[in-house]
């Protein structure tokens, strides 16, 4: 399974970015997907997840109302729309594929390589 994340960059506080993650190597449409992030000196943390159909979404409290996860199963791609970005959103963002229904107690089965998001104040 390969997960290729893209869309990161350097933006100012209040700006928006959309991350994309293209998946290959297994049937994309039947697995939940997620985004995680890791800031310098901190542990990797959950950001958002989406069910295989897109009908259910889950968010960390820190991004709820600002970030939106979505997926296009025809394109094998999951997205993270990030609005009202804050300096504390600065991190490497990783997409991930779960092997079963999303459960915060379970780690994803596969990880992408990450894309850097830097938000200046």
Structure class:
mainly beta
Order of helices and strands: EEEEEEEEEEE
What is the typical, i.e. mean, pLDDT? Answer: 96
Helical stretch count? 0
Which shape, going by the Cα principal axes?
Answer: globular
In a few lines, what is going on in this structure?
This protein is an all-beta fold and 121 residues long.
Q: What can you tell me about this protein's structure?
A:
The chain is an all-beta fold. It contains no helices and 11 strands. The strands form 2 sheets. Strands 2, 4, 5, 6, 9, 10 and 11 form a 7-stranded mixed β-sheet that branches. The radius of gyration is 13 Å and the shape is globular. The termini are far apart. 34% of the residues are buried. The model has no long low-confidence stretch (mean pLDDT 96).
Secondary structure elements and pairings:
Blueprint: E1 2-6, E2 9-12, E3 17-24, E4 33-38, E5 45-50, E6 57-59, E7 67-72, E8 77-82, E9 91-97, E10 110-111, E11 115-120
């Amino acid at each position: 399974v390969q997960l290729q994340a893209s869309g990161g960059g350097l933006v100012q506080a209040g700006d928006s970015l959309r991350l994309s993650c293209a998946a290959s190597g297994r049937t994309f449409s039947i697995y939940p997907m997620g985004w995680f992030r890791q800031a310098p000196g901190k542990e990797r943390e959950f950001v958002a997840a989406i069910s295989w159909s897109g009908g259910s979404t889950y968010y960390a409290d820190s991004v709820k109302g600002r970030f939106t996860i979505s997926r296009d199963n025809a394109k094998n791609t999951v997205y993270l729309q990030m609005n009202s970005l804050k300096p504390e959103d600065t991190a490497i963002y990783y997409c991930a594929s779960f092997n079963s229904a999303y459960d915060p107690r379970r780690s994803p089965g596969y990880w992408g390589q990450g894309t850097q998001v830097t938000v200046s104040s």
